[in-house]
């Protein structure tokens, strides 16, 4: 039996790494790796769910790495297929097993994987930064020595470990608070800094930069770690694919598409400026009140609720275009607008926008037929903001953890919040991955509270 063990080990490793198990990996060994992909008509990209890589928003695939992958696939003349892994280790495992062609993620460049991978594409520099508030009475920290005596809140893992090391380097004195609560994500801590609930946290610079588009009062200028190089990666036996990725990045770094993606995620403000009621004395909420009154009865809504939704979506600006590409008064995504019958070029026509939104709300309502009528509005509003899939995930999580999946407030809304936390969005009951749930949580609460205000101030 002892003599058989090495053979069994080889067989086991072959199974793990895809020896003979992956048709594509075998074909690549035999010939031109890039041509095989072109012949298949499909580029299979491996990535992770996150706010900077890949997520689903209002039923549409989004994310910086996703958009770059789509642009690269298009340059090769093939379609893109996304496969999501649970963590970096699984990303590499899936790639080596031939379950994908390319890792599109800021993969740390390390000696450990240089024999197995070819790093390619744009090489980015990542580092950890202190996230703090800008302005106000307290001046932002400009040097790591100023952290002595300060309270810094971090999640366990690399951020906590870096702070502990930095504390030792400085001779002690940083008050490090390890946040072990599973329901609080890294992005929740950044939100708490913006709101003044905690003074400091730590994040990677790309995540921190993305969050400044939601919270312009953040300062992310103080670096506390060494630079870490990161890039895309392919298998060692795919040199032509790597060369194509390098060439594409070199030629497209200044292209309109690449620039637009960079701005969408890391520069354009995600906040919508809001103004008060148009005329309280005349009983007017907006210039579009007659249209709200015309179409609201089709879904059995109070017109003031439809107005409250429009206010939150666009601030009654019919020319508004969101960071995600949603357009018009009711901020419908292009695909949704087409599906709801909006003629091409009419996305910013107020009546077409309202008519389509009402049609979409009616369709969404049918998806929540089992939810009690008095609760259904919350689920519809949440779905309007996030897409139905994320709300269904939150309902499944609520049921799993013993909460009422048909009640929004203090039940399902708490689980949409948790969709930004890896432990929850990677749960088998979730089908739609990562989502920045705080936006939907606030969206529903803002609209329903404003509707209450409108009812008190504006006649039906």
TrEMBL record:
PANTHER family: MEMBRANE-BOUND LYTIC MUREIN TRANSGLYCOSYLASE F (PTHR35936). Signal peptide: none annotated. Its main location: membrane. Transmembrane segments: none annotated. InterPro entries: Lysozyme-like_dom_sf (IPR023346), Solute-binding_3/MltF_N (IPR001638), Transglycosylase_SLT_dom_1 (IPR008258). GO terms for cellular component: cell outer membrane. This is Transglycosylase SLT domain protein. SMART domains: PBPb. Residues 45-269 form the Solute-binding protein family 3/N-terminal domain. The keyword tRNA processing does not apply. It is found in: Cell outer membrane. Pfam families: SBP_bac_3, SLT. Keywords: Cell outer membrane, Membrane, Signal. It is a peripheral membrane protein. It comes from Bacteroides fluxus YIT 12057.
